Amino acid sequence: MFARRRSGVHRTAIVSPKNIARRTTMRASALPRPTEPLPNTLTTGRHSTLGHTGCPTLRAPIGSHPRVSTAAKPTPTTSRAGSTSSARSTTLRSSSVANKTIAAPTARTSNMARAVPVSSRLPSEVASLKSEITKLKEELKTRVEQIKLTNEVLEMQKTNLTHSNAQLENAKIKLDLVENCKITLEEQLKVLKVNMQQKTAHNEEMCQQLNEKEATLRKLHNDVVDMRGQIRVAVRVRPMLKAEEESSNDGIEYPAVNAIAINQGTKKGTTLMFEKVFTPLFSQKDVFVNIEDFILSALHGYNVGLIAFGQTGSGKTHTMRGGDAEEEEGIIPRAATFLFRESKKLEATGWKFEFSLSFLEIYNNEAYDLLNNHAAVKLRLVNQTVTLDGLSDHPLAKQSEIGSLLRTADKNRKTAATKCNEYSSRSHAIYMWKIKAHQQATGISTSSMLKLVDLAGSERAKESGVIGQQFKEMTNINQSLSVLQKCISLQKSKSQHVPYRDSKLTQVLMDCLGAGNSKTMVVVNINPCNDQATESKRSIEFASKMRETHIGSAVQQRDLY
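== Kinesin-like protein ==
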């Protein structure tokens, strides 16, 4: 039952002793029984009131529930005996205490949980909380360090950003400078283009004038060569050999720089004039310097032939081929060096050159290829032009390639020892350079031929003492040289028929002897010994006839397209 008071009168619930006992039992079973004495207010800092010693229930904090005034206490509704009234009074007090003790935790459970002291917790829970606190502290420390690092990175990025901004400003300034420079350079480029166009036009004009002057110079050069004689003749007297030191050599006189006379004993010889007389004091280099302008005509597009003539042992092969040492090189290897050097100079005026080389041998009136295992070569004569079928042609891109070709030709050429000459050539050797030239500016193209001829020496059977195969070789050599002299003599007399077909040698050399279109020079070699005076005299007399032979002016060999 409840006693109600209206108009603000305090209401108090009357709880039976049975309910009080039941609630007290439920609360006691819900809370664990402490194994240790409960703390007092001095150790916990919190005031607590215990119902009795060992009671697990803590009194609610002061102020959590309002106190019940004595005026609000209920009055009995029924009249009972004194003992009964006393019992009810006791019951009401117990109910009031229980109500105050049990109602407190149900009203504010959270406040009671906070009021539980730490020492009442389990050791494992305390250790877990401490571990969590430690982890939280470490995590907090890590976060603080991360924040510091992040701040440092931010500061660094700020610094970099400031630096980048400064660089950007500098770049903008430089860009402005570049733009200004670009404008300036474009203006200068326009001026340079105008100047270059003017200079290009001027250079074209100068090149045209240079080509005209170069053509005039070529013509003048070849006119000078023609004025000296279409067949130019020079005489070379070789030095005495060690084996000839006991022989006398005072039979040769040199009245002038271009004159020679051969005396026979007390009989004075006739003085003969030539383009040049090379005394024994002239070196290989000196000889070539005096004929290089003649060889230069081959680069200008003219056919050129240079022939070494003389008796056996007079030094023809030494003049043409020379020795292995550089200072002993003859006309053939020096001509190769000269052609490559001069062609490089002419390339400055727009000329381009191509060279190729062939070596032909005429042995016993038959033609062979000295650069192709001594293979036979067939000669065909068609309309005053000789065709050499089977002769190999070897292009030359650089000067160093000539050496191996010369050695191959020397190895294949026929030589033998005689009484007159230990290394007597038993054949005629003809070195043929094919030269192609083209100048793009003028469109001029030429194809010319340079023939360098080392003839076998004339000899007599009685003096040379040859027999057998060597006698046959001597006969063919003398016969071919005789036909050569005959052709030159008939050419000098302007005969209607010149027998070039009578010998393979004259067929190959017919363009050099007047039937073709060539500039020709003959170097007559002389033996200085007095006992060879007769043969030497015959040689220079024949050379004098060749010098008087007119073969006509050479014409530049231009290609027609």
